[in-house]
Design a protein that fits this description.
Layout: H1 9-12, E1 15-19, H2 30-45, H3 49-60, H4 66-73, H5 79-98, H6 103-108, E2 112-118, H7 125-137, E3 142-144, H8 150-153, H9 155-167
Parallel strand pairs: 1-2, 2-3
Helix pairs in contact: 2-3, 2-5, 3-4
Length: 169
Amino acid sequence: MSFFGTHRLYDLVTTVVAHEPPVRELLPDAEAQRTLTDDIVATYATGDVIGAWRKFFAQAAIPIPEPMLAQLFGGDRDPGQVTSERFWFAHELRQTTSWVPDPPLLRSIPTRVIIGIGAESAGQFCDRTSRELAAALGVDPVLFPGDHIGFVNDAVTFAARLQEVLDQP
């Protein structure tokens, strides 16, 4: 018996909204992206925090001005934030981007899978990965307000769009 008893997870979950999943392995240039990710992690491990973030945002195709990088990631920083960041670079970045979904399995289960993309994310890394996953699943991606973190920047508008999407058959 599993944690879910006799139920399979997809018997319990009716809808999944994957908002800009960073599933790099679906990209045509996955090998080059993997190399970039390894370089980002290695840069951070040398202690070059700003350099690692600079490379991360470059890979993500998110323009961040140099003064903003210095303000966000240089100088005195909150120890909790630094600890979380260190863990993310060491244990999460590679693992989250290297996960390979199983499109045939995802197409075969009754769970509705919605691939969400921020309307302001055009051309960015997660826009590309989301579109690849949507194509592999045979679904159209759904646009949400904002960018990769639109749910943070304008939670009310994002929630309204989410409710609208969930109400659609």
